[in-house]
Amino acid sequence: MLLKIVKRDFQRNKMITLGLFIFIMLSSLLTASSAHVVMELTHSLDNLLVKSNAPHFVQMHAGPIDNEAIANFAAANSIVKEQQTVEMLSLDGSQVTLGSSMKTEANSVMDIGFVKQNLQFDFLLNLDNEIIQVSEGEIAVPIYYMKQKNLHVGDQVSLSKGQFQTSFTIVDFVRDVQMNPSIVSSKRFVVSDADFTALKSEFREIEYLIEFQLTDLSKLSEFHNAYQASNLPNKGPAIDLPLLKTLNSLTDGVIAVVILLVSLLLILIAILCLRFTMLATIEEDYREIGVMKAIGIAQPDIKKIYLAKYFVLAILAAIGGYLLSLIAMKWFTANISLYLGAAPNSVLQHAVPLLAVSLIVGIVVLFCRLVLRRFNRITAVDALRTGASPAPPSSTSILSLSKRRLLPVNVFLGLKDVYGRFKMFGILLFVILVGLLIIIVPVNFMHTLQSPQFISYMGVGQSDIRIDLQQTANVDQRFEKMIASLEEDNDVVKLSPLVTSRFKVLGSDGAWESINVESGDFSIFPLSYMDGASPATAGEIALSDLNAKDLNKQVGDTVQLLIGDKEQNLTVSGIYQDITNGGRTAKARLPYNEESVLWYVVALDVKPGVSVRDKMDQYAEAFYPAKITHLEDYLAQTLGNTIKQLKLVVLLAIVISIAIIALITSLFLKMLLAKDAAQLTVMRSIGFKNSDIRIQYLGRILLVSAIGILIGILTTGTIGQGLVKALGSFMGASNIQLVVQPVTAYLIIPAAVMTIVAITTFVTTLSMNKSRIAEQIGK
Amino acid sequence: MPVLEAKGLHKVYSTGEGNEQAVLLDIDLQMRQGEFVAVMGPSGSGKSTLLYAVSGMDKLTAGSVIFNGLDITGLSEDELAGLRLREMGFIFQQMHLLKNLNIIDNIILSAYRAKISNRRTINKRAAELMERTGITALADRDITQVSGGQLQRAAICRALINEPAILLGDEPTGALNSKAAGEIMDILEDIHHTGTTILLATHDAKVAARAERVLYMRDGQIAAEQHLGPYRSGTSDLKKREEMLSSWLSGMGF
């Protein structure tokens, strides 16, 4: 009996049921997918950390090194489990040609390093997460280049320096726990020990990675401070395990969060969708429910009939969504599998998404029960007599047609109805608002990442060209020569030399910590500051957001710095955002000590009309081995992978959002048409055409969507901004300003949403009840 | 030329599994301009169906309806809606006013839509109609705030706002008490005397007694017809017409 009723109901509302099915399936698909992504990310990252035997602390260093001092420090420090010093040959991009490309990597923002396989830990792995072993003449290339340059096994990597020329055959690709992500601007190529020794005699630039594994990870920051407090080599950035984890999970973490947010919004909308459908069904069945009650069928039994339908529907849709997610999983986790490797399957990996999907079924059933409480209010007599639920009382004289001189009747009726039943229309408004947010926020986020202004979150002012000079022999002289040469260059309009040195700062816990401070005139290429301004005098310092938080300082507070042997108090002039170097940097106008200089940077703008590319080539030759970067390229190359992944999510968000808006508008209208059937018949009986009624509904729905869109646009400024800030702080910039392309965000997307709503309304009202007025009036 | 001419009206409902039930069987009907005709008969005899059929609200199985010289049976839904809007007024037993509009808006709605004249003129006409039907004070009231009789008066105003060529009423007093029903009939009679053609379906002999002609329907056919002649309150004896009609009806087995 029950099955018969459910079957009949499925047949009666085929379209709505199918729509709802697809909808729950879609929410299940996304929820399961985001759960998959999170599980896969955690598992793969953990697996990679284990397989590569990741270091816990790495100090990069360019310059002379005292291995004995390091060994002594390690031996004296009880929490050091293992220590190794990795030699990395730094090659200039102009010396390297990859695959069949005719061009060298001169314009690449990446620092190219050649290494041999490590013996103790920090293993460089291949795509199967096995420790790479290469023979003479062979090379393993970082995954980053495999993707960027579309390299294959068998391709060649050529090196040249003056007369010296050699080439290697690619036999594998490197999964590097330290330098995998594109946001890390160094990449390690693996060659055999013999080749490494041979190359070392040609390319003399060596950078050291002084790596440690500890016995107790909870003492990591203690160890970090201990290392920095010692006189051990430290000319270069230092990274630790938490930073490694963050960098590795950045791209996919952002994606997972975005998918999760979209799926959360979807669940919310799925529930609303269900409410529309159920109310429409109850409305249609009002009389039948009355009959069932009148003939003595118990209320719980009647409820069971309705609940059964949605329970079956939710279960089937959730299973469908889960199965689809198993297929989509490959799509969503492709990036993770490539960069972090596939982790061995575990029960948990499948159980968590399944649990998430079950939760959706639970929510659906719970919500059905809540809606079905409405049955308590239906009395058999009322249902049989009126055949429709009682309309809520509304005040009809606030907006009176007789007082309007110009407003067309159909438009008036539409407006009046929205005003009178705003609570009900509010649901549609909310859905359109959320639908719009699902599109606009990711689109804006993507625009933000793509915008040139984003460079300011990388702790850099916006300039045409940036020249980086790392530690090399006579680096200070080279730097001075470079500045002198640039100052004489007539094509250069603005020039800002900046020197980064390491100092000691008094931490919030009273201990001295290391801090990298960039010195120079920051008014030439100003950064955007979250708070305050750039340091104007030698007594001021600007801190990166994370440093300010660590040191517990705000603008106006005093920071104690150890400059040489003297303690000096600096006032915090501003706080800025920086997602580079682990987000911990500072800027000041300090005299620098050549001994403690880590690197030099020159930012410059060329005259309008001067080709930036030509200038870059010219400088690359003149200032070799300095690295010349076009800032737009820098963004494209470091954030390119994240943007690419985000594009996928944006595309998905657009498709889903459009589907939601169309489906909900259609369901809402169907419910409305069922509810208004009697009134529509009256209207038709007194001479209103179907086209009049269609205009009225079009007016209603477009008005509601216009309000929804308007609120949506205003909300993007707050909710969207909040979301972006949350995602940004995950990356080290907690105050990313959303960059909005007004034409896209305020015109194209809203117009597209309005068009979809209008088309859906038009199509749905085409199927409006065309039965004879006589039959309807007679009911 | 008759205002309304129905020829061979035939209406069959399908009751499923190939079974059919005829509700109108070869009905011929003619109404001249300004005539007041009542249709009587037992429940299910086809009275309402006849009214819906001649107003284009129901589709015929066969036959034709000529309204003001125009065959409306071949018209589209939209053309029929336009005809109802401008040339026909309809009063239902259950009033069927729009819930979200107040009394005045319900009355003027179809006139504003038809744009028969400017809105000021329409408002003036609505005010006159409301005064004539005694509901001026209720203009701004919600439809839930007035009595059934008052609602039916508003429905009559709505039906007359576009000065239709014919007024059709399906049991207009059926949901009212006898006092309210009497008042409504006084109004309809008054309207009839201004020259409006009226076709009314009713169970009530008291209502039908005011008509010039009464048709008796049985099993979808016009079984008989009674000419009562013109009625004018004050000069004609309504009681006598009622008695005459009742005895005729009882002779028909009603």
Automatic annotation (TrEMBL), chain A:
Compartments, record wording: Cell membrane
Membrane topology: Multi-pass membrane protein
Keyword set, alphabetical order: Cell membrane, Membrane, Transmembrane, Transmembrane helix
Tree of life domain: Bacteria
Protein name: ABC transporter permease
Phylogenetic lineage: Bacteria, Bacillati, Bacillota, Bacilli, Bacillales
TM annotation in the entry: 253-274, 310-332, 352-372, 425-446, 648-669, 701-723, 743-763
Keyword Cell membrane: yes
Domain ABC3 transporter permease C-terminal: 261-371, 652-767
Main location: membrane
Source organism of the structure: Paenibacillus radicis (ex Gao et al. 2016)
GO cellular component: plasma membrane
Automatic annotation (TrEMBL), chain B:
GO annotation, cellular component aspect: membrane protein complex; plasma membrane
SUPFAM superfamilies: P-loop containing nucleoside triphosphate hydrolases (SSF52540)
One of the Pfam families matching this protein, by short name: ABC_tran
Gene3D superfamilies per record: P-loop containing nucleotide triphosphate hydrolases (3.40.50.300)
This protein's UniProt keywords: ATP-binding, Nucleotide-binding, Transport
ABC transporter domain span: 4-244
Domain of life: Bacteria
GO molecular function annotation: ATP binding; ATP hydrolysis activity; transmembrane transporter activity
CDD domains to which the protein is assigned, alphabetical: ABC_MJ0796_LolCDE_FtsE
Listed name of the protein: ABC transporter ATP-binding protein
